[in-house]
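Late entry, evening session. Most of the bench is empty. Finally got around to the prediction I had been postponing all week. Sequence below, unchanged from the version circulated by S.P.
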Amino acid sequence: MNTKKTNSTLKQVDFKVSGRVQGVCFRMFVQQNAKINNVSGWVRNCSDGTSVEGLMQGSLENLHKMIEILKKGPSMARVLNSYFDWEENPKQIFDSFDIKH
């Protein structure tokens, strides 16, 4: 990301989404939407085979947009559960959105 963020405006959300979210390009979908919405962080498949987890950083408005996007997922996915945990002061600041393996 090209935009510098300060800790006062930067919010963080840890997330976990479960259902049919692996093998349906969910991580790539999240990464693409994060870039569109100026959100940084990461996403990865969980070892349980039925969930994806990650971390997002950005403005309050953009994170709310991303939460709605994650609750729906791409067309091939079926999101059954979603969990979001807000953090006001991130300890580490990410400057891109990556897919972890």
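Two things to note before I forget:
The mean pLDDT is 93.
The first strand starts at residue 11 and ends at 20.
Will write this up properly tomorrow.
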